[in-house]
Amino acid sequence: MVIFNWLFSIIFFASFFCVHSDNITEAKDECRKLFNILKESLGELDVCTIGNAVPVGMCDACIGQYVKAVQSFHNLTNVSDPKSVRERCIDRFMNQDALNIVWQQYQSAKNLWNNADCSNCFVEQCDADKIVDVNKVKELCKQNVEIINFKNRTSILNDCLREGDIHRVDVCKECLTKFNSLEETYKNLPGSPNQICFEAIDQFNRTSSTWYNDRKCLKPVVPMHLSVTLEVVLILIGILVLSAMGYGGFYAFTIYRQQGNYVEQLDSDSGEVTPPINP
């Protein structure tokens, strides 16, 4: 029994030492530490983007997590692996499986951010690849003036619609100038027309759907009598242009014939015969 207890104690302390030794080794492993930071930052970014998917608000809400993920990847790329003189830390975790999972996950996050054109939401100095201190994200990554103006005009229109409902007025008429102003602001956003920050695209699409589909508001149309008058005016202008062209051609032809008759008269008075012109 004593021997059994002695053996059990040896095994227990040996296993404890091995586990503790592994923890110490991992704690001293800078590459593993950087990889864990990348893993956590990508997870935080995924949670944030999914949580701000409907309506789309990931650019503004998740800029901090995105910058942290990008910088974590750069750190893993730039630090040398102490276990291999010729390799970087990233080489220990990249191309280690057929799917290349680490690279795929990072690229997926980058592609989502770029496809949403989130960079066009912020001022120029908000460059995730150049920001070194993630604690300065809020200071450096402020939304540009155009996006702020667009959001303000969206709020103004929504306030107008709510006020119209309260006072039971025709919101299509009362809020038309505000909708037109919002539409004009949207057309002039950075990246227009194909690379506008997707947050703004999603917000404008939802606002337009409310305006046209829910509220049944339409853009002003030309009244029927004005439309008919405009068509008549265009037809008359066309007739006048064609008449002027015909008269001008006829007048030029007449002048040409008169000049020809005058030359023939001179020839007959002088007695000279004008030779025929060969075709």
Overall 3D shape: elongated
Helix/strand/pairing class, anyone? mainly alpha
Rg on CA atoms, Å: 39 Å
Biggest sheet statistics: none
The total of beta strands comes to 0
Number of helices: 12
- Spell out the helices and strands N to C: HHHHHHHHHHHH
Tally of discrete structural domains = 2
What is the percentage of strand-forming residues?
A: under 5%
Average pLDDT over all residues: 79
In whole angstroms, the N-to-C terminal distance is: 136 Å
| Unreliable segments of 5+ consecutive residues | 1-24, 222-229
- Overall helicity: over 70%
Task: Report what the structure shows.
This protein is mainly α. It folds into two domains: 127 residues, no CATH class; 94 residues, no CATH class. 70% of the residues lie in helices and 0% in strands. It has twelve helices and no strands. Helix 4 packs antiparallel against helix 6. The radius of gyration is 39 Å and the shape is elongated. The N terminus is likely disordered.
Task: Sum up the structure in keywords.
2 domains; disordered N terminus; 12 helices; mainly alpha; about 280 residues; elongated
Layout of helices and strands, plus pairs?
Blueprint: H1 2-28, H2 30-51, H3 58-61, H4 63-78, H5 89-93, H6 101-115, H7 137-140, H8 145-167, H9 171-174, H10 176-187, H11 198-214, H12 224-270
Helix pairs in contact: 2-4, 4-6, 8-10, 8-11
Task: Write a compact overview of the structure shown.
This protein is an all-alpha fold and 279 residues long. It has helices spanning 2-28, 30-51, 58-61, 63-78, 89-93, 101-115, 137-140, 145-167, 171-174, 176-187, 198-214, 224-270.
